[in-house]
TrEMBL record:
GO terms for molecular function: DNA binding; DNA-binding transcription factor activity. PROSITE patterns: HTH_LYSR. The keyword Transcription regulation applies. The keyword Ribonucleoprotein does not apply. GO terms for cellular component: protein-DNA complex. It comes from the Bacteria. Belongs to the LysR transcriptional regulatory family. SUPFAM superfamilies: Periplasmic binding protein-like II (SSF53850), Winged helix' DNA-binding domain (SSF46785). Keywords: DNA-binding, Transcription, Transcription regulation. Residues 1-58 form the HTH lysR-type domain. This is Transcriptional regulator, LysR family. InterPro entries: LysR_HTH_N, LysR_subst-bd, WH-like_DNA-bd_sf, WH_DNA-bd_sf. It comes from Deinococcus radiodurans (strain ATCC 13939 / DSM 20539 / JCM 16871 / CCUG 27074 / LMG 4051 / NBRC 15346 / NCIMB 9279 / VKM B-1422 / R1).
Amino acid sequence: MELRHLRHFVALAEEEHFGRAAERVFVVQQALSSSIRNLEEEVGVQLVTRTTRRVQLTPAGEEFLIGARATLAQAAQTVERARRAAQGEVGRLTVGFVSGLAFGGLPEIVRRFRELYPAVSVDLRELTAGEQEAALRGGQIDVGLLLLPVRDPALASRPLWRLPLVAALPAAHPLASRTTLRIGDLSQEDFVFFPRYLRATYFDQVMHWCADAGFTPHVVQEAIEIPTLLSLVAAGVGVFLPIEFFARLALPGVVYRPLEGAPVIEIVAVWRRAAAGEQSTRPTVQAFLQVAERVLSGENGAGEATPLPVLPTEPPR
């Protein structure tokens, strides 16, 4: 039984006339009549009674009409859902993110994405950069948001946002009275920082910058969470060099100051490259990337991000 047979039958039932029904479904009358006969043969019962003036449904035909309409409606919904899925408008999206992005960037992206794609279920997972890369390779997440690019050839990435480092100081620190600092001003300070294994590229970039200024930071305390590090700053344990958007965390006892010539840190989106025979990138991932770019470039009033050029969805290998 084909959907066209059901469409022909519904048209005939509603028009009660072979000629008008044939015009409605854009076939000749003979083809419509043959389609109805084939349908009756397949069902095994008479569905319509034919007279010279009109067509009437049999009791079996009346029942069949209810099911035919429901089947056609379900088929239309299935087709529409497939089309929307192809455009990234329905489905499920699992997004990994490093903890810091919860304080800036991620809330605005997710809020806007849910507004634009309410039929897509978004699952958020807080993971380290290494955990995200493993989860992407294993298919546990669809897209990750990290600080700095990845070098895994199985993963594609796109820069979304660039922000400089700033100095987080105890509020009572003598340098807190200045509006802008140089990295050399911190050469004699104790530092609090992440363990290198947690954010190796970020860690190395800061260490190289300090080395270029003639000193190696004296790290007296490590912690894995941003709020913990900033709490250590507030307690006077040391200074910290977070990315600028962490200045949103207005902790008592902590002040933030710009740093001249500070390194700019990239926030990047990462996803698994398509395997042979697969679509280049899942539509929901493409939609998420587009929303993230617009939000972080300031098009939706989210932050003071520096716009980046739009890159190809699937960068060359």
